[in-house]
Amino acid sequence: MHKPPPTMVGVPNVTRADAAAAVRNPLAFIAARWTPTPRTVQRAALAALVMSVVIVVTGGAVRLTGSGLGCPTWPKCTADSLTATREMGLHGVIEFGNRLLAYVLCAAVGWAIIAARSEKPRRRSLIRLGWAQFWLVMGNAVLGGIVVLVGLNPYTVAAHFLLSSVLIAAATVMWRRTREGDEAPRPLVGKVVQQLVWVLVGVTAALIAVGTVVTGTGPHAGDSSEVPRMDLPMGMTWEDVSKVHAVLAWIVVTLTFALWFVLKAVDAPKGPRNRTRDLFLILLAQGAIGYVQYFTDLPEVLVGAHMFGSCLVWIGAVLVLLSLRERGPLDQADDASAPATQAYAATSASMAGPR
Asked: Nearest to residue 69, comparing CAs of 256, 258, 249, 225?
């Protein structure tokens, strides 16, 4: 018996016009030839959210290991080297490694943008949220460079962390939007409950902001050498700021518990109740870590865990706010949509220019 001759797989015919279109607008070029499923878009948005948290935690590791000036300049690691050198030791490796993770974050945000741009029908709100993350990442990269150039000024360090919190909020909103439809938002609770949640989110933001002051005045510097700390008014000490931070934390816990009780009393839908329960549990764990680290002289591992917990608290608060409305179901696409995708790509391939 003779073996059948091998079959040749057709190679797509990429014309000069296609190449020019890809150069002019690569996102449109990709979108014309690829349609991700809603689940793929959700995973891309989740990857961007996860990386936005990872970069905060690793940035905290840079500070907690005294590696803030492991690379003493920016954008290069040293005046003569783009990367860390052997002479710089472990501090240089840690600081440069955190800089490399910024590229992973850029890749995750880029994937989210491409997936959102390629989804059909096009959802402009997702695309805008993806680009918002991109510009926040770029802005924070520049701010991170300024932090190094000014010798870890505590105010710039605080601003660096707060801008990262804005990035986490944008990534959370995008991830939530990928899991719901595009109908006009319909409130699930009354105005009084909505106002209570806005107060909760506002106090949570204040809690995080005061946390940066605790860091900026506390014993953990961002470098192994002496760095300036924040000046406190009216003779306040680091312990005083820590107590203010603890009071705000208890206010957030109380508001969350009150919200949970109100939602159960008015028989609110499961969505808001479950998100409020999740936030309450996160707050209890975060509070426990906070008190333990305070009474054990701030061990680095617990401080890092507390930074991770602050990210989860912020995500939880944003999700509670987003759970107060619904925007209709999401049309879940599956592999059965492949023929329609191929038809779309075939039609779009002949486009005169990018969309």
From this structure: 225
Strand, helix or coil at 223? strand
Give SS3 for 186: strand
- Shortest CA distance to 187 belongs to which of 93, 325, 73? 325
Extract the tokens encoding 59: 């940035």
CB-CB contact of 272 with 326 (8 Å): no
| Rounded Cα–Cα distance for residues 256 and 250 (Å) | 10
* d(C-alpha 118, C-alpha 17), whole Å: 20
- pLDDT in the model for residue 95: 87
Distance, in Å, from the CA atom of 220 to the CA atom of 306, rounded to the nearest integer, reads 14
- Asked whether the beta carbons of 285 and 309 are under 8 A apart, the reply is yes
Distance CA 103, CA 144 (A): 14
pLDDT confidence of residue 349 = 37
Backbone angles phi, psi at 342, to 5 degrees: -65, -40
- Classify residue 295 by burial, with Cβ atoms within 10 Å: 0-12, 13-18, 19+: exposed
Per-residue model confidence as pLDDT tens digits over 92-115:
888 888 889 999 999 999 999 999
Q: What is the pTM of this model?
A: 0.85
